[in-house]
Amino acid sequence: MHRREAQNVLDSVRQAITLATLVEQLRKVQAVVLPLQYGMSIEQAVQAIWLSKG
Q1: Contact 9, 32 (CB under 8 A)
Q2: Highest mean pLDDT: which of 2-11, 18-27, 43-52?
């Protein structure tokens, strides 16, 4: 993903965070933000938001 595309995704996801009303919605957007913004692997992001991979 190119830097500009990643930034567009992050901007959209940050907006989604403010609109999330359910924990599940918040976890979904965190699963996108954590790897893109902080360079976490999927496994690290899953562990950070307490989800199972299965």
Answers
A1: yes
A2: 18-27
28 residue type, one letter = K
All structural domains of the chain with their residue ranges = 3-48
Owner of token pair 């995704």? 9
Q: How many CB atoms lie within 10 A of CB 48?
A: 14
What's phi and psi for 5, nearest 5 deg? -65, -40
The reply to whether the predicted model has a pTM over 0.85 is no
Secondary element (H or E) of residue 33: helix 23-38
Q: What are the distances in angstroms from CA 10 to CA 16, 52, 54?
A: 10, 23, 25
